[in-house]
Leucine-rich repeat-containing N-terminal plant-type domain-containing protein
Amino acid sequence: MGTDCCSWDRVSCDNITSEVISLDLSCSCLSGTFPSNTTFFLILSLQRLDFNDFRKSKIFSKFGRFPSLTQLNLSSSWFSSLVPYEISYLSNLVSLHLSYHSSIDLIGFHAPGPILTLEKSAVNGIVQNLTKVREIDLDGIDMSSIDPNSFVNLSYSLTSLSLLGCHLWRKFPDNISKLPNIEYLSLDENAKLNGQFPKSNWSSPLVVLSSFVCLFLENCLNHLTI
């Protein structure tokens, strides 16, 4: 009380309206259970949100209530249960990061098994409604019930798709390479995934794979044919 939150570290406000538009809690040392009745969900002006360690809390459906949100980063926040379908209501999202892994996990120190689950309805909602999204990071989320073909109709604006350790299986669609702006695709640690990418002149990958820059297939090579 009596202070201007716009002056706080990691809080950004609109210069004209003074409404909070960005909240970065990623290095705030906050932890514990995130309450479902918090007035945090009333900050409808948010455009960017980065979270911290809320171990065993749920990703509530209320996270879909931020109409202006363009960047949502819940990576390594240790949320549990299902990823709610309401995440797909965030139609202005440009960046969606729900990764269970931290940066140190990605270089070889793997956390325990996934505690977040993504089901078919939520994936379909993300594919259909997030038409502006350019980055999707779902590393470490349990998607064992998902048909990889669900990703075929992702937004043409997509430049990065990371699905490391998601328990994906069956055939991965080869026409994912037809997304015109894709630059990064990670399928690491999905040992039961199989498929075949198009036969092309790989000496010119930016042409052949519509601007693919990085293709990570660690522990998939017994099943994916290049």
Q: What stands out?
A: The two ends are 60 Å apart (CA to CA).
